[in-house]
């Protein structure tokens, strides 16, 4: 392990991948152990590891259930965030992608900000949140926190907007979570005990935003028009 003074200098800023400093990318690779492991079965990925941009490296193995709806998501989908520290998700760092929900996510993000601003000014504001199109997939990469920075990747979490009638009490969302090797941890709707305990019991509190916590938004999604 690197000396503490050296590791403190390897700070990972939450910025657009196009301007991601090489030093910050090195910090991510060092802290997560990417590119240094000799175990070919640990987080096996077809992508090369000698990269300067951590968003070009795929540390997760996709299960069949996940790959059917999210193959090549890092290159085909919209990335909504950088590495964000999320108190809503056990103080882990998260990176969020969406297949076709960018427009709705951005709308709800700004409506939520307007509501917060109105509350700060003791004013009334009735946000006009939108629901996501059927087939939309929200994917969240989860990383442990290592001394205030992103650490090792842990799980992938997906929310898939199913057709009306799938589970109306939970917005017709299906939840899937896998570990880094693609093993299913939970799969089902908000009525399933394991799903409710791990995910749905929190998401039910934001039904007005169609059950999606639209609390982070960064480049390049900020100026995207898809």
Explain what the structure shows.
This protein is α+β, with helices and mostly antiparallel strands. It has one domain: Chalcone isomerase (3-Layer(bba) Sandwich), CATH 3.50.70. The chain contains 6 helices and 7 strands; from the N terminus they run ααααβββαββββα. Strands 1, 2, 3, 4, 5, 6 and 7 form a 7-stranded antiparallel beta sheet that branches. Strand 2 (84-86) and strand 3 form a beta hairpin. The radius of gyration is 18 Å and the shape is globular.
How many domains?
1
CATH architecture: 3-Layer(bba) Sandwich
Number of helices: 6
Q: Mean pLDDT, as a whole number?
A: 81
How many strands, what sense, and barrel or not for the largest sheet? 7 strands, antiparallel
């Amino acid at each position: 392990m690197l000396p503490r003074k050296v590791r403190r200098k390897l700070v990972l800023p939450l910025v657009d991948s196009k301007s991601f400093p090489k030093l910050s990318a090195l910090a991510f690779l060092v802290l997560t152990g990417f590119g240094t492991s000799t175990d070919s079965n640990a987080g096996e990925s077809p992508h090369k590891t000698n990269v300067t941009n951590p968003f070009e490296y795929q540390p997760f193995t996709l299960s069949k259930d996940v790959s059917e709806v999210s193959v090549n998501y890092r290159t085909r989908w919209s990335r909504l965030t950088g590495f964000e520290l999320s108190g809503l998700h056990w103080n882990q760092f998260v990176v969020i992608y969406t297949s076709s929900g960018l427009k709705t996510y951005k709308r709800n993000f700004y409506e939520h900000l307007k509501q917060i601003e109105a509350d700060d000014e003791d004013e009334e504001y009735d946000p006009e949140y939108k629901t996501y199109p059927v087939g939309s997939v929200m994917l969240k990469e989860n990383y442990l926190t290592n001394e205030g920075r992103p650490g090792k990747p842990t799980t992938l979490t997906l929310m898939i907007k199913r057709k009306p009638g799938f589970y109306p009490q939970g917005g017709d969302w299906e939840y899937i979570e896998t570990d880094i090797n693609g093993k299913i941890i939970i799969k089902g709707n908000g009525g399933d005990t394991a799903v409710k305990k791990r995910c749905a019991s929190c998401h039910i509190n934001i039904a007005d935003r169609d059950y999606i916590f639209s609390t982070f938004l960064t480049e390049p999604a900020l100026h995207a028009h898809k």
